[in-house]
Every structure is written in C-alpha cells, then in structure tokens.
Amino acid sequence: MSPSIGFPPPDPETCLVTSRVSRFKGGTLIDDQVRDLETHERRVCDPDGYRPRRCPRCGHGVLHVHCYPERHPRAELGVPAVVRIIQYVCAAGGCGATWRILPMFLARHLWRAWKTVERVVMPAGMPQSSGALPIPARTEQRWRTRFAASARMLVVLLAASGGVALEALASHVRLDASRGELSEAHADAAHIAPGARLAALAELVHRLERGVRLM
To answer: In sequence order, which ranges of the chain are alpha helices (DSSP H)?
Structure first.
C-alpha cells in the first residue's frame, strides 16, 4: 500500500490523527450495531433508539433528545440523499454535553457512505454500483492518498487497547504499516465481509480515541 516500494508510508494529514476527547464537551458516537438504513430509520424514530445509557463525559444517567441533524451522503444506491440522525444533550447541571449518534454505515467527516469509499480504495469483493453517481477524480485521489498514509498512530491505539486480539493485530501489521495494510489485516483477522471493512475499523478507531479518523 505504500506509494513507493522500499519507502515507509507518508505521514497522514493532521485532521486524521487529532484527538477531540479533551477539546470538546461532547462529540460524535458511532453505533456499531446499526449497519443498514432500515435499522437506522427504525432506531432514529424512537427517542430511546440511540439514547446512551450514560453521558460519556460525566457519567450522568439522563440524556434528552436535543435535535435531529441531517447528513447528506452522496453517490451510493440505496442510501437517500438526506439521512436524519439524532443528537442528545446531557441533563446534568454543569455538563450539557451534546452527543451526535451516527450509524456505522455513514462515514464521519465524509459526505459518503463507507461502502462508497471502500469501493474505491478496497474494490476486491465489492459489487459494482452501475447506477451510482461517479466520484470526482480529486476525491478519489484524496481517499487513495489517505489510505496509503501511515497507520502508526492507529497501530499504537490498537496495541494499547488492552484487548488480546487487537494487540495481536497491532503486532502483526507493525508500526510501518499503511492504513490500507491495517484495514486489510483487520478485515482478515475479524472476518469482516466486503462492504463493511472500512466502517468496522473506522468505528473501532473512533471508539478507542474519539476524533481520530481512518480516512
């Protein structure tokens, strides 16, 4: 996955490795149980469907529905142009953190579903989407550049996670792996099917260090 044989992967963009845990009161949470549009639409219509049991910031046990922001994913058949998500606010006095919940199939900070991105950077095993809108060449190039960038920080996160399987994965791919190599190794180790490979790793990375991005 490295851009040049014999050279280590280039450093990733700053936006991919910036933690948001200490900078903001709230943020984005990704629900790894919601992997398709039907499940998401059912959950988002129920005020309790995505409600966290406790505020991730202060631990308070009551969060209220705050609003319903919209995401506008592009170029993926079967995913509408507008997807409504839900945001909660912590009811604890002095906290007030707000938490936006994303289904796992939507890419955080990208105007796409993860399947769309995966079809470009990990096409093996992916069904072709003949009716989807084409991806701009500059967007494809940006994704490929990020996919070829260093996964050093992500590997360190996995190694420090405390999970035996993740520590073994980090040891297997080594610190000089690219993000593409890490994605392939994780998909193989966790038996992730094509179409969910990037989404699964992106959710894992975000859970380990909120704000750090795969792509």
So the answer is: 37-44, 114-121, 137-147, 152-159, 164-173, 179-190, 197-208
For residue 51, what is the DSSP state? -
CA distance 116 to 169: 26
Strands 27-31 and 86-90: unpaired
Burial class, 1, CB count within 10 angstroms (exposed 0-12 / middle 13-18 / buried 19+): middle
Global pTM? 0.88
Cα Rg of the chain, angstroms: 18
Model pLDDT for residues 71-94, shown as the tens digit of each residue: 999 878 888 989 999 999 999 989
First to last CA, the chain: 14
Sign of CA dihedral 191, 120, 205, 170: positive
Bridge partners of 30, per DSSP, are 102
